[in-house]
């Protein structure tokens, strides 16, 4: 058969095939004498890619496929179509080359143009629909229909990228993964999309919400904005206004804080047990009984005041209600509000509410589920669902969670750099790092970077054409020099290694930046994030760094006497010491200890629900805010805390159990 060469088809070039498979196999393929499976076996560069070949194990089928090379894309599309590449080519499918877009940064004017284009094309960002079927449809027929549906959908998206010249997130392409989503939607009463608070819209699929309603209008959607501990209250307000105006059903959550609360409750209980043992030994039990709670309240007025300020007696204003971060208990209550009104028959227990949890990888889906389970204080059985792949978790007598595999929905993105910074593209596979590092350099104030990493960034002065904002190279060079990272041979600063560290810190939220909601005119990014870098949020020692670093950068001074006051590293710090140094600032591996020193935790206590942080955590937090060592406070005020704690615990029981 002679292949018709379509002018519109980008297709696979002969050179690409030869590059990848060598001349002979490339020629075989052009003749159509290799099927997709045979090609997979002869892949020379060690890469694996997905085809839904008959002999593949089921786990291979379930692998998430988001990044496909041109050839991989071509083959799996051909395989979905149940055909070989010859027929595929005749079907005139366009093949998208991953690297065809500019991976670097855009000017703000370009950003604006692009965002307008995104808006215009938003409705074309669909999720694939499960084809209609009924009891007469055979499994084979359904399989064929599902494959055809996925193929159509992929074709549409490929066309959208090609004709509109738009960069998209590397969305999920594996039919098996979409099948799981279809099943989760079909059985769920409420579909919860979990998104990352730093850039909620990047992780939201509007069309998924539409699809949920198409499947059954009685089903509901919820946008759960997780990692809300990373936002300031002002940021939460701004986004809440946007969500309300856009008619989006949303709530804020923080799996991280929920985990801390769960842990602090366990610690409190341990603490209480320990204390009670001690008291028994010292024959203080009788004494303890005599303690008049009222006296304790007077003696320890400050702490009691702190608690009473956040008493749950005061109703929250509408705005507070919208911006607050839910506890796990409140989240579960919210789930229950969506209980189906289905009569299961006389004498039959009501059907459990089924909650489908979907979201991109890394948005905190597992952490959310763990926090919900952890709050139960009993082990919750995780039993495999009817299908092999998604899990159903019986959270309580009334709620079942359906945990869908992590899914990357199609969405627009401005640059690849943005995708790296958002954690969608993995840092470790980066080849071009100046784009994403440039975004970090633009977004995080350089004085903050200097304080965090104990380094000095040499920014090109204005008279030499500098803009006042460091370039990626300037930040990376400073970091590499401070850490002693050098390239072998030429012994230049190892910018690529520096980029990996800095970008991972950014993705984890150690270097924090939150995107504002889209508005006209656009919200100023610096203003929106200014509180995050307010030095009053920083531990004492780092405040000095920041003050000196800012003074030096404002005056352009490198006055050694100024720099001597602080221990900015004079020698490069390498290896383990590097992480030790960063941990001193952030807390070990971004752990809770470090979190306490970050602004967001502090802000959390201001949202009128400090009552959640009972016990050690709250004390530690208050102590830190007051600049006192928490350990000292605990020792000196043990009894009083305990008296309060008892009250607190009683309240907690009322609140939570
Ligand atoms: N600060 C903060 N970090 C969070 C929160 N929830 C999750 N994380 C962090 O985000 C990262 C990803 O969390 P996971 O729960 O593994 O995310 P996931 O969506 O299950 O990711 P996959 O397992 O890849 O699908 C981890 O480093 C978590 O510690 C949160 O509420 N606040």
UniProtKB/TrEMBL annotation:
- Bias regions of kind Acidic residues — which residues? 268-282, 306-320
Region annotation Disordered: where it falls in the sequence: 112-137, 264-324, 633-657
Query: Mind telling me which Gene3D superfamilies this protein's record contains?
Result: P-loop containing nucleotide triphosphate hydrolases
Q: Which GO CC terms are listed, alphabetically?
A: cytosol
Pfam families for the chain: MMR_HSR1
**Positions with biased composition (Basic and acidic residues):** 283-305
The protein's superkingdom reads: Eukaryota
All copies of the CP-type G domain together span 178-410
**PROSITE patterns from the xrefs?**
G_CP
The keyword Nucleotide-binding is assigned to this record: yes
Location within or outside the cell: Cytoplasm
Please state what the protein is called. P-loop containing nucleoside triphosphate hydrolase protein
């Amino acid at each position: 058969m002679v292949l018709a060469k379509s002018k519109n088809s980008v297709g696979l070039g002969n050179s690409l095939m030869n590059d990848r498979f060598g001349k002979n196999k490339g020629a075989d393929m052009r003749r159509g004498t290799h099927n997709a499976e045979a090609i997979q076996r002869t892949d020379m560069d060690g890469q694996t890619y997905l085809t839904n070949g008959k002999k593949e194990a089921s786990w291979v089928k379930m692998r998430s496929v988001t990044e496909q090379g041109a050839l991989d894309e071509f083959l799996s599309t051909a395989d979905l179509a149940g055909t070989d590449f010859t027929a595929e080519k005749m079907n005139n499918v366009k093949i998208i080359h991953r690297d065809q877009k500019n991976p670097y940064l855009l000017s703000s004017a370009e950003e604006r143009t692009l965002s307008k284009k995104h808006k215009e094309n938003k409705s074309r960002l669909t999720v694939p629909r499960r084809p209609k079927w009924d009891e007469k449809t055979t499994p084979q027929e359904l399989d064929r229909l599902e494959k055809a549906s996925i193929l159509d959908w992929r074709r549409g998206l490929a066309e959208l990228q090609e004709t509109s010249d738009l960069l998209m997130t590397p969305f999920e392409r594996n039919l098996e993964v979409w099948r799981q989503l279809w099943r989760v939607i079909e059985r769920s009463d409420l579909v919860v999309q979990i998104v990352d608070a730093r850039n909620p819209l990047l992780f939201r699929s509007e069309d998924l919400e539409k699809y949920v309603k198409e499947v059954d209008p009685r089903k509901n959607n919820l946008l759960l904005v997780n990692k809300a501990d990373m936002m300031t209250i002002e940021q939460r307000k701004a986004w809440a206004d946007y969500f309300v105006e856009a008619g989006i059903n949303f709530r804020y959550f923080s799996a991280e804080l929920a985990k801390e609360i769960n842990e602090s409750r366990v610690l409190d209980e341990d603490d209480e047990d320990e204390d009670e043992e001690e008291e028994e030994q010292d024959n203080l039990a009788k004494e303890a009984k005599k303690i008049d709670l009222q006296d304790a309240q007077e003696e320890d007025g400050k702490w009691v005041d702190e608690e009473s300020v956040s008493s749950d007696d005061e109703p929250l204003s509408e705005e507070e209600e919208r911006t607050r971060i839910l506890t796990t208990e409140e989240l579960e209550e919210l789930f229950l509000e969506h209980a189906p009104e289905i009569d299961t028959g006389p004498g039959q227990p009501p059907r459990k509410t089924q909650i489908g949890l979907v979201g991109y990888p890394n948005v905190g889906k597992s952490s959310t589920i763990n926090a919900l389970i952890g709050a139960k204080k009993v082990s919750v059985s995780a039993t495999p669902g009817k299908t092999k792949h998604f899990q159903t978790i019986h959270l309580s007598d009334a709620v079942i969670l359906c945990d869908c595999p992590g899914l990357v929905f199609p969405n627009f993105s401005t640059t690849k750099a943005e995708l790296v910074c958002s954690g969608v593209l993995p840092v470790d596979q980066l080849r071009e790092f100046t784009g994403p590092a440039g975004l970090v350099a633009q977004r995080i104030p350089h004085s903050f970077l200097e304080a965090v990493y104990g380094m000095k960034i040499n920014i090109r002065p204005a008279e030499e054409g500098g803009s006042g904002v460091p370039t990626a190279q300037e930040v990376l060079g400073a970091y590499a020099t401070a850490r002693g990272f050098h390239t072998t041979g030429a012994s230049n600063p190892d910018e690529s290694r520096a980029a990996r560290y800095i970008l991972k810190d950014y993705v984890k939220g150690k270097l924090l930046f939150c995107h504002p909601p889209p508005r006209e005119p656009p919200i100023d990014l610096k203003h929106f994030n200014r509180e995050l870098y307010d030095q009053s949020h920083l531990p004492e020692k780092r405040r000095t760094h920041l003050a000196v670093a800012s003074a030096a950068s404002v005056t352009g001074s490198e006055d050694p006497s100024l720099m001597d006051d602080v221990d900015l590293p004079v020698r490069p710090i390498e290896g383990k010491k590097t992480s030790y140094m960063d941990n001193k600032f952030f807390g070990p591996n971004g752990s809770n200890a470090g979190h306490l020193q970050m602004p967001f935790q502090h802000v959390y206590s201001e949202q009128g629900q400090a009552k959640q942080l009972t016990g050690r955590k709250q004390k530690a937090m208050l102590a830190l805010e007051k600049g006192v060592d928490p350990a000292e406070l605990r020792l000196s005020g043990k009894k009083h805390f305990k008296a309060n704690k008892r009250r607190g615990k009683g309240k907690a029981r009322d609140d939570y159990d």
